[in-house]
Every structure is written in structure tokens, then in C-alpha cells.
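User: Could you go from structure to sequence for me? I need the amino acid at each position, not a summary. C-alpha cells:
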């Protein structure tokens, strides 16, 4: 059970940051995860009065405030227009709509949970996090850091012409994933680049970047080979949901389906423009 001494809703980010420097203070997102823990928290800091609950689109980026809910992410039109249904797919299995109306993007990213679908999906895109004290850094760097006393203000996705796919395997519909995989591709610095993000291994999501020119008419065998190569570059572990070998096998299958789906869309687009 969690025990909370006092609740504070700061009026400024500076106040929130200062309060959070005490060892026994904790920032709250939606509190969906935190409340399940066993902790004595002297002061819980509610960021909900600081305007961090909007998704803003500019010419170059999509800025997702830390207090945006997973449901906002799921329903975000600008993300859907750019990257299709992948973002929606990455959150739609998380418990239920009421839950996703409370759990936040900030809590999901700051927590760096091994099982996180949200982290797996965001990591595969050109994503940054904005921290109160630590500035703006790449999400791929942030995931490697240990949690500290900083505040996560927003998650920033740089807009680019990339194709995105997301899939996961769960033993039952709303359980944690046994494996979660995202594949993104686009032209980066003039070269065709593929990004593979695999989470719930059961370790937290990691990112792999490959400059592969996969032919649009790649055979099933070739796609299997690319997916196998990508999957083999991650490490896997065993827990109650599955063994390391099973997870690697699932990763190969999901990555293969995602690569195939992207190639099909690409060749469809090319045929239309021919
Ligand atoms: C039963 C259950 C099932 C779940 N299933 C899944 C699943 O299948 N897939 C999945 O991806 N996720 C799953 N989750 C995780 C969920 O999606 C959220 O990631 C989780 O609840 C954390 O979000 P929150 O807003 O509740 O954060 P909280 O619980 O409020 O906070 C989590 C941590 O982040 C810190 N924090 C929060 N916001 C900030 C901030 N802005 N700056 C700094 N620190 C901050 C808090 O201090 C705390 O340490 C599940 C959670 C539960 C409880």
C-alpha cells in the first residue's frame, strides 16, 4: 500500500522541481502504477495544473505534454496522419479505455518499464524528451539513464516521412506483452534506414538502426532473413510469460510481418505514382 503525507499542486514548474528534490517526494502522473506500490511518500506532487496536458503540432514536431493521457495519444489525429494506426495499436491493449484516460505519457516514459508498449513505439520514431533540468535529449539516451529527480515535461516526435508498424503478442487480451515490436523506415541522410525497437524482452525497449536497402519485391525468404538478423541483435530473458528463446522467435515473426507490411505499402504507393 502507498501512504501519502501531503498532496501539493504546484503553480509553477520551478516549484514542482524544488519540491521533488526531497528524497521522500514523488511526482504523480495518473498514479495508476505508483498507487500499486509499497511506499511512504511524504509529498506527492501533482503536475496537472501546469499546462502539460496538450498535444501540439508545429511545422516540424509533435509535442506531447507529459500529463497527456494514453487515450489522447491513441486518438491523436496528427500522429495517425503521419504514421498510420501504429500508435493506436501500441496502446489499445493497455487495460481499457477508463485506464487509458488516466495513465499518462509522462508516467509511462519516465518509468522506463520493461513491459512498456508506449516506450517501444515512441523509441522507434525520431523522439526526444524535454526535461526540466536536463534539457532536451534523445529518448534513446533517456531510456538508458537511471530514474532521477528531474521532471519530464514533454515527449517530442520530430516529423518526418517514415513508415511505422507496431505489433505485440499477449497471452490474454489486456495482459502485459510477452514481446512488443515496432519497425520504422525512411530516408535518413539520403540512405534507406530501418529502425527496429523491441520491448518486453522482458527488458525495456532497445533500438536497432540498419541502413538496409530491402528490395520492394523481396521474397518471403529474404524478408525472413532480414527479420531474423534484426531479432538476433537483441538480448532476451525468461520470466513467467515466456522463455528467451520463445521471445526471440516471436520477435522474428512480428518483425517479419511488419517489414512485409511496409514493403507492401511502399510498392502500392509506387504503383500508384507510376
Ligand atoms: C494493471 C496495469 C497494467 C498495465 N499494462 C500495461 C501494458 O500492457 N502496456 C504498457 O505499456 N503499460 C502498461 N501499464 C503501465 C501504464 O500504461 C502506465 O505506464 C503506468 O501506469 C504509469 O503511468 P501513470 O501516469 O499511471 O504514472 P504514475 O504511476 O503516476 O507514475 C509512474 C512513475 O513516473 C513518475 N512520473 C510520472 N510523471 C512524471 C513526470 N512528468 N516527470 C517525472 N516523473 C514522473 C512517478 O513519480 C512514478 O515514479 C500498466 C499499468 C498497470 C497498473
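Assistant: Here is the amino acid at each position, in order:
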Amino acid at each position: 500500500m502507498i501512504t501519502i503525507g501531503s498532496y501539493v499542486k504546484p503553480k509553477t514548474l520551478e516549484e514542482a522541481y524544488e519540491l521533488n528534490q526531497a528524497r521522500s517526494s514523488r511526482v504523480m502522473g495518473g498514479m495508476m502504477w505508483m498507487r500499486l506500490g509499497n511506499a511512504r511518500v511524504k509529498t506527492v506532487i501533482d503536475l496537472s495544473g501546469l499546462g502539460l496536458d496538450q498535444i501540439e503540432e508545429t511545422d516540424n514536431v509533435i509535442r506531447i505534454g507529459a500529463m497527456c493521457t494514453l487515450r489522447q495519444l491513441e486518438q491523436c489525429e496528427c500522429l495517425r496522419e503521419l504514421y498510420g494506426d501504429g500508435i493506436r495499436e501500441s496502446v489499445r491493449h493497455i487495460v481499457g479505455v477508463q485506464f487509458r484516460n488516466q495513465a499518462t505519457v509522462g508516467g509511462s516514459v519516465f518509468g522506463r518499464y520493461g513491459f512498456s508498449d508506449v516506450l517501444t513505439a515512441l523509441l522507434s520514431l525520431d523522439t526526444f524528451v524535454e526535461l526540466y533540468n536536463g534539457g532536451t535529449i534523445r529518448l534513446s539516451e533517456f531510456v538508458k539513464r537511471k530514474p532521477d529527480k528531474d521532471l519530464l515535461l514533454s515527449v517530442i516526435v520530430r516529423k518526418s516521412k517514415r513508415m511505422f508498424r507496431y505489433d505485440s503478442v499477449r497471452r490474454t487480451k489486456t495482459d502485459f506483452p510477452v514481446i512488443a515490436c515496432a519497425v520504422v523506415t525512411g530516408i535518413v541522410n539520403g540512405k534507406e534506414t530501418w529502425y527496429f525497437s523491441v520491448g518486453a524482452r522482458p527488458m525495456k525497449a532497445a533500438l536497432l538502426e540498419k541502413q538496409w536497402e530491402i528490395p520492394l519485391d523481396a521474397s518471403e525468404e529474404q524478408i525472413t532473413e532480414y527479420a531474423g538478423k534484426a531479432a538476433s541483435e537483441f538480448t532476451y530473458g525468461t520470466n513467467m510469460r515466456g522463455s528467451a528463446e520463445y521471445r526471440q522467435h516471436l520477435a522474428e515473426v512480428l518483425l517479419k510481418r511488419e517489414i512485409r507490411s511496409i514493403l507492401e505499402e511502399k510498392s502500392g504507393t509506387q504503383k500508384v505514382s507510376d
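One structural detail worth keeping in mind: The chain has three domains: 2-48, 55-158, 162-273.
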